[in-house]
Amino acid sequence: MPRPTASLSTLTLLVSALGVGCGAEPTSRVVTSNPQASPAASTATTPSVDTKPFANPGGMWVPSQLDAHHETLKSAGLELDPKALTDPTTAPLGAVVSLGGCSASFVSPDGLIVTNHHCVTRMLQFVEVNSTPDQDVAQKGFHAKTRADEKWAGPTNRVFVTQSFKDVTKDVRAGLESLPNDRARYDKLEEREKALVAACEKDKPGVRCSLKSYFGGAQYLLIEQLELRDVRVVYAPPEGVGNFGGEIDNWRWPRHGGDFSFLRAYVGKDQKPADHAASNVPYKPPHYLRVASKPLADGDFVMVAGYPGRTNRLRTALEVREAVEWDFPRRIAAYEQAIAALEDLEKKQPKLSVKIQPTVGYLGNGLTRTKGLSEGLGKGGRRCSARERGPRAFGMDRRRNAAQSGFWRRDEQDHGPRRRTQENA
After folding, report:
1. Exposure pattern of 201-234 as b/e (b: 16+ CB <10 Å)?
2. pLDDT for res 24
3. pLDDT tens-digit profile of 304-335?
4. Among candidates 48, 64, 54, which has minimal Cα distance to 10?
5. What percent of the chain has pLDDT above 70?
6. Taking the complete model, does pTM exceed 0.85, yes or no?
7. Where are the beta strands (DSSP E) in 5-135?
8. What is the dihedral of CA 393, 394, 398, 399, to 10 degrees?
9. Which uninterrupted H or E stretch holds 5?
């Protein structure tokens, strides 16, 4: 059973017009509260955690935080009522789904999904392996002219439709402080996670539940999602369009690639999740997005909703330094070694190219990202001192400053032993 992660399995919204600075975090209360929009939605509870809004107003939030930023969002250009964006299970955010590693959106009442081209490369690999050699869909792209032509993306691909959220912070954190050590707390967290997930999934075929940690373990959400198991490829542009610029342009802005593709989710005739079968029918999503009637203009407000893997915006200065000096160099070396080994294998066995290239692309994406982070934080970026990342950076008052000051001292003291453990591992 994996540990509760810091991944934002609730939708996260990024507002490109608002910036964040050194030592800043999203303005938010650690506690989130999702309105109950339907019988399937769960009413959030309030954890007994001392919550104080972070000082920085910008950039990235989970939906339930948006109503608190009504004036900020309106002044930035949002025309919708921010309250309409606080519940990910209702329109419009209810149309946004997870592919288990990528974000996507329903864009038709018949289960049509739009996502990124790089999110379907492994699906295209499966289609190609099960197609005639001359099709070469990974390079030439794919276009299903009819629904009968849509190709199954394989047994491991999923579409996750979020149905409810429940704040279980009290259930997860109760009594952890009294346990004797980190190992005991870890084991208790794992025990509680298994129990919560099992209870959530009981007597619910086709449903997957997960426990997610937010704000460094200050909040835990139990998330229930419908798991659609029959996913088919509808359209993918040629590699030269979908990945235009390759790794040279990757993680650069602006980028001019046609990084999009279309999928469709299928279910049984009763509209319940089912394994792949010719008799399955398109899923009828409760919400889907419509194409805008007019294009964006210069200065228009832009907000992006999705399911990112995780955010490290609450890292301390010491943790950032640890990443730059120890983690990033080793991660970069591992990426480079793996890519070199796979490319060497591809030269020796060209027929394996269709299987190797998606993995090389995945590793190359991680390599480019990690190099950029290392260069930005270690060279071009501003190095925040521990004081700047300490209590003052979080807008703590004197009482909370005094209460938390011991943490910052312990963080400094623990750094040396942690480094020695890493070096000797």
Report:
1. eeeeeebbbbbbbbbebbbbbbbbbbebbbbbbb
2. 29
3. 899 876 777 777 788 888 889 889 999 999 99
4. 64
5. 75
6. no
7. 12-15, 60-61, 96-98, 103-106, 112-115
8. -150
9. none
User: How many residues belong to the chain?
Assistant: 425
Q: How many distinct helices (H) and strands (E) make up the chain?
A: 11, 14
Give the integer Cα–Cα distance in Å for 71 and 27.
13
Distance of alpha carbon 81 from alpha carbon 407, whole angstroms:
40
Is the per-residue pLDDT at 132 higher than 80?
no
pLDDT tens for 145-177 read 999 999 999 999 999 999 998 999 999 999 999
Q: Which residue has the tokens 């229930």?
A: 224
Count of beta carbons in the 10 Å neighbourhood of residue 356: 17
Q: How far apart are CA 358 and CA 242, in angstroms?
A: 13
94 contact partners, CB below 8 Å, separation of at least 6: 88, 162, 286, 287
In 159-271, which residue ranges form alpha helices assigned H by DSSP?
A: 169-173, 182-201, 239-242, 246-249
